[in-house]
Every structure is written in C-alpha cells, then in structure tokens.
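Hey L., structure's done. Input below.
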Amino acid sequence: MSKAEAWLGYLPSYYHDVREIKAIARAEGAELDKLAQELEDQVDQYYPETATWALSRFEQDLNIPVNLSKPIEQRRSVIISKMRGSGKVSASMLKNVAQAYERGSIEVSVQPAEYKVTIHFRDTLGIPPNLSDLKSAIEEIKPAHMAVDYALRYLTIAEVEGMTFEEISATTQDRLLGGGA
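Output:
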C-alpha cells in the first residue's frame, strides 16, 4: 500500500471520491514515500554492512585510511574485519577477520611449533580481489612472532580436463596457477 492510500485511509470515506482530496493525498503520499526512503537510508548508515556514504566515518573512527577510489564492498570488508579483529588472537578470530574479506569458505590452521598460521581459501579460485587489505588486517592483529601463509586455490589439471570448451573459454587466466598473477 502506498503512503497516499494509507493517508486516504485515515480520512472519512466520503472524502475518498473527492478529486481535490485525492490530489492532496498523492502529493502528500509522494513526500511521505521520500521521507520513508530517507529514514531507511539514515538507518542503513549505522551498520557497516549497509552503509554507503557514511563508510568514511567508520574508517576515520577505526583509523583506516579513507580511499574513495576503492569499491564500497572492499571498504566495508576492511571496516568489518577491523571491528572483528579486537581481543585475544585465536584461529577463530583470524578466520572471522578473513571471512569479512572473502565470501567463500576459509579455513585457518595454526602450527604453533612452527610459529605459523595458514589461511586456506577453499572456494575462491585465483587471487582474491581484496587480498592486500586482508594481509594488512591480519598483519595488524597477529602476534609479531607468527608468520602467515596464504594458500590460494587454482583449477587443477583434472578439473580443467573435465571442462567443456565453452567452460574453458569462459575461464579467466587468473584462475589457473601462474596465469595472470
């Protein structure tokens, strides 16, 4: 139901067929629709998952360099990971931070004897688009004595051999080990 219809619903029924009242309802309804949209946009700015024009406020509050040339999704990833990356460092925290950058499946394994953490990208083929930001975020929260390895996933020969010509033609080189990186 539009705001105009809702506005008319508050009036007695004998006004519903008056042309002037309908015109007023349409005009008021359009303004109420704009107001509702503006209010929804304002509420969206309070959450980094939905914010657009307020991302720079989050970045400033979290001491993240504001880079307006980056895509909004990448900026959101940096903000969310920074918010998640506080407290005691653990494998689950590192996974949580890495998951903010990558929508696919990620596994984090810790090898304490080797002072090493490995982040495995299970679903993403090739180099993730925001890997440099992820590396910066992980470097900032991990203990200084721990090294981090990033295990990327590429198409295997068996996977390529099972593909049709159309699938191979549609596959970009960055999904193949050594291609485009």
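Strands lie at 106-111, 116-125, 147-153. The two ends are 52 Å apart (CA to CA).

-- N.
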